[in-house]
Amino acid sequence: MNNNDIKELMTHMVNCNLKNFEYSNNGITLKIENYDIYENQFDNKLSKKIKVKEFDESLNDVNDNSNTTKETRNNFEAVKSPIVGVLYESPSPDKDAFVKLGDIVKKGDVVCIVEAMKVMNEITAEFDMKIIEKNAKNEDLLEYGQIIFTVERV
Length: 154
Description:
This protein is of the alpha+beta class. The protein has 2 domains: 3-33, no CATH class; 59-153, CATH 2.40.50.100. The chain is built from 3 helices and 10 strands. The strands form 3 sheets. The chain has a 4-stranded antiparallel beta sheet with strand order 3-10-8-5, with no helix packed on it. It has a 4-stranded antiparallel beta sheet with strand order 7-6-4-9, with no helix packed on it. A two-stranded antiparallel sheet has the order 1-2. The protein starts with a helix and ends with a strand.
């Protein structure tokens, strides 16, 4: 068994969702364990509320219908990715995005999808909100905790 055989075996383990594998031949034993590092983290909810500290002055263009002050800006919150995965802004390529800049989103509405290990995880709003800024683009690879949207409670 060479390195390529081992790599191929590991790929099959991931694709088949195998947790462990053990192989013995001529006194040599190979044991591979596949730990699911995201186990119990598929929350499908918006992350905990955080205060966003820095904002670009271009946010004034988004909020041209309201009198935004520095105090209001400090009340913006972030929608963060609960998992590592690929961001999808719409349910399929031929459909419109779930949300656009300036949209008012009701609690429980889907704001985006994060695909992880071929599982589509709908990210839903935890509260009524207005989309102030998109911090990631469609098909971006998201890290755990990466900000997807800057929002304001309504």
